[in-house]
Amino acid sequence: MQHHSGDYEGYFAWSLKTDGTKNSEGAASDGELYFITALIFASNLWGNDGEINYLKEAQYILSCATSKDEKHGYVTNLIDDSHRLITFVPDGYGNQFTDPSYNIPAFYEVWAKWANDGKSSYWQDCASKARQFLHSTVHSTTGLTPDYANYDGSPHGGGTIGEAFRFDSWRVPMNIALDFSWANADSSWQTQYGERIQNFLYSKGIDDYVDQYNIDGSTVTEILGAGGKTKLRHSLGLVSTAAAVSLCVTHEKAKEFVDQFWNAKNQPYDDGYFDAYFDGILQLFAFMHLSGNYKVI
After folding, report:
1. Number of domains present in the structure of the chain
2. 191, 209, 229, 238: least CB-packed within 10 angstroms?
3. Low-confidence residues in the chain, pLDDT < 50
4. What is the pLDDT of residues 19-34, one digit of tens each?
5. What CATH number is associated with residue 111?
């Protein structure tokens, strides 16, 4: 997956065939966030004297990801330096905006503490900027976020995908819960946010809210399809992240969201659609969050 030479050096191809052939050379910026953080945790847990120097691998990605601009043509840095925010894709088009679900300030806090790459204050600033960005991109009434956003937080239009709350945005409640749990640096706003989005979803029916809305809470005019199916669903992925944000909140509704998640099953929907990957991984993350097992190592 990882490029070891060329303009994309250090980055990971975001999509591959099962035999390892790349479907696309480019990176999806959130992938690097998880790789770097996981490697730092592996370093903390197992050390770096064995077959793999985990910290060195993390530092290699960080070094590559912060040294692209003006040197590698179309490929750019992972972080837009003028805003200190993660790019949607680190290239000449995707670096012009971001994805709210890619903004995970808790990860930058981990990098600031343990990456040992000489950029601790930079990563702390990125964490602060990510929190400020989330404040600006979350809808003031519904708590919903667009799938894509400009660096000022406003929705970034892009056809069917972009301005509305759809699949990418399901991850935002879970990511904010993560920052609440790990860093606890913005807890007052995060509690307000968690209750706001749960209140909105609850108003649509705890068993009935669907997986795509305009950010003001109105019904979308165009449904984004998945797996060859085009339908609004009460999707397990959103059920999972809506439950995970219960970590932040104090209201009684939280228990209903957790109960609904606990009783949900990852199985085909009534139209035959089955998403073992995205629904499944969000279900796994939510179990880790809510059981207290997704933590800083």
Report:
1. 2
2. 229
3. none
4. 989 998 889 999 999 9
5. 1.50.10.10
